[in-house]
Amino acid sequence: MEKKEVAAGIDIGGTNTIFGLVDREGNILAEDRVITSHYDEIEVFVAALYEKIQLCVSKAGKGIELKGYGVGAPMGNINCGTIEYAAGLPWKGIVPIAAEFRRHTSLPVTVTNDANAAAVGEMIYGGARGMKNFVVITLGTGLGSGFVIDGKLVYGHAGFAGEIGHTAIRPGDSNRDCGCGRKGCLETYVSATGIKRSLLKIMADSIQPSELRKYSFEELDAKIIHDAALRGDPLALRAFEHTGRMLGFKLADVVAHTNPEAIFLFGGLALAKDLIFEPAKEYMEENLLSIYKGKVKLLASELSTQNAAVLGASSLVWSELEA
Amino acid sequence: MEKKEVAAGIDIGGTNTIFGLVDREGNILAEDRVITSHYDEIEVFVAALYEKIQLCVSKAGKGIELKGYGVGAPMGNINCGTIEYAAGLPWKGIVPIAAEFRRHTSLPVTVTNDANAAAVGEMIYGGARGMKNFVVITLGTGLGSGFVIDGKLVYGHAGFAGEIGHTAIRPGDSNRDCGCGRKGCLETYVSATGIKRSLLKIMADSIQPSELRKYSFEELDAKIIHDAALRGDPLALRAFEHTGRMLGFKLADVVAHTNPEAIFLFGGLALAKDLIFEPAKEYMEENLLSIYKGKVKLLASELSTQNAAVLGASSLVWSELEA
């Protein structure tokens, strides 16, 4: 019997690391996760992750043949197989994650930015099928971006293209600390954490009543704010409006750089639909040069929250094998 | 005798349109210009330009064979052969410039953004030889940008990539009108016109004496401010510092989008060397994510002011003939 070839697609996030065994058609045959934040040591993390993947492969039966590992991670660098200075992960400095995998396996291991992985997933299996020029913005704990130009992922000279989460909304004019050590980066406003921070600021300035006043900062999350907004809570609505506006400003910049056909929003905040898309679209259009107005689609990712990066990361393995 | 093949490289600017007859090696065998602002009608402009090019070809003698026309212009669109809503040119709306040329000739005519043309010139004949990922910023009456990724010019979905001159420094927070109809665009600060505007504002706020107080806005130009700065004029020095700072802010954004190896500055303001490069470099570095710090070169174009766009525009003809 011929075995079914699968790739392990791995999406490393600040909280969870999700992986899936994915065939060439993009079917996820099995998936599981490990808790990223439980592992202070990269060696121990990779060993635990590797073991869990092997367990998954055994469970999937003898008909499966694993061909390689594709890893999407914040600040993942395809040139060096490293994760470098990722503020939201437990490991500091330059982390040689591909080398750690190679202590366990001789199969190919490819590492890239998590948003790049999501962009590849969107291109092969999602709403960007057939598009040559588009951008994927991932809205999780932070904000990532992946650029596709002429049908190819943009890596840049050093492998770090697509870090618009760390562009400033108004240079020199924000007190909001970013995990990267600077102030006022886009992701401090537009991300699951960013909307909490904006909500607190709005709550401090306003005297309107709100169901959200009973939550601590730690208790709050984007889902709670989303649910409150759906019930018409005025502070939650203003937090979404503000978040969408900040996103829209910077999306206009994205358009002026690379003139994409579409921008896809992916991840938790994108699930809030019109609450985030309407202000983002309005302020993007307001800030666009006339030649671009009404011509750039702002779309929701067609892949479910957890799967785009896993699918994209797995597809890196097929590209690697064909290269 | 075998004839020497040349392409007409044409650089359309708000004031002058410069053209050259360029061979495949990048030698400009002849050049001349027409005054753009004398022509309100695109038909008359193209007829006059076409005639002057033919004159140049005849003068160059029988050994020359013209193979095509490459045009660089603000808002030049390679997909449609048009110039669209270029604020600094005499013709409004969508101008079918390639079609106008085709009324006179059956040779190939290629149109692109003037900064794209300069980027191609830099890549083939200038300081970007051998580079795969770089950006050229043209500082003239306005500010243009051309992006090269993986050795190829980025056109984007609709042919309009690289309009960072029309991104806002601080969205919603500037009174400075832009020719594009919006406010606070980068080119209203960073361009030959932008530095004049900043100087006037500094002059209004300051009580320091300055040799520049005797000039009207119309009399002032970037060269006068540059010369005054070299003599230590305090207001001229502050105008350069301010201009460089605004540029540096946005260059940090450029890096976070596409992670280039180098950014080249080209055009009049770039001739001010350290006066513009030092503040630009300082504020770019200050606004860079740590992974990029100290790793992106900020360089002066190696091509003389008038020639990069002419060379780049001419090279479009060779690419067109080989496609």
Question: Overview of this structure, please?
Answer:
With 323 residues, the first copy, chain A, is of the alpha/beta class. Chain A has 2 domains: 4-122 and 306-322, ATPase, nucleotide binding domain (Nucleotidyltransferase, domain 5), CATH 3.30.420; 129-300, Nucleotidyltransferase, domain 5 (2-Layer Sandwich), CATH 3.30.420.40. Helix content of chain A is 35%, strand content 22%. The first copy, chain A, contains 8 helices and 13 strands. A 5-stranded mixed beta sheet of chain A has the order 3-2-1-4-8. In chain A, strands 11-10-9-12-13 form a 5-stranded mixed beta sheet, sandwiched between helices. At the A-B interface, helix 6 of A face helix 6 of B.
* SSE topology string of chain A: EEEHEEEEHEHEEEHHHEHEH
CATH superfamily of the largest domain in chain A: ATPase, nucleotide binding domain
Largest inter-chain contact set: A-B, 50 and 50 residues
CATH class of the largest domain in chain A: Alpha Beta
Give the mean pLDDT of chain A.
93
Overall morphology of chain A: globular
What gap, in angstroms, lies between the N and C termini of chain A?
27 Å
Q: SS-based structural class of chain A?
A: alpha/beta
CATH topology title of the largest domain in chain A: Nucleotidyltransferase, domain 5
Q: Characterize the largest beta sheet of chain A: strand count, sense, and whether it forms a barrel.
A: 5 strands, mixed
The number of distinct helices of chain A, counting runs of at least 4 residues, comes to 8
Q: How much of the polypeptide of chain A forms β-strand, as a percent range?
A: 15-25%
How many E strands of chain A? 13
Rg measurement of chain A, Å: 20 Å
Q: What strand line-up does the widest sheet of chain A have?
A: 3-2-1-4-8
Quaternary structure: homodimer
In the predicted model, the low-confidence regions of chain A spanning at least 5 consecutive residues are none
Q: Give the tally of structural domains of chain A.
A: 2
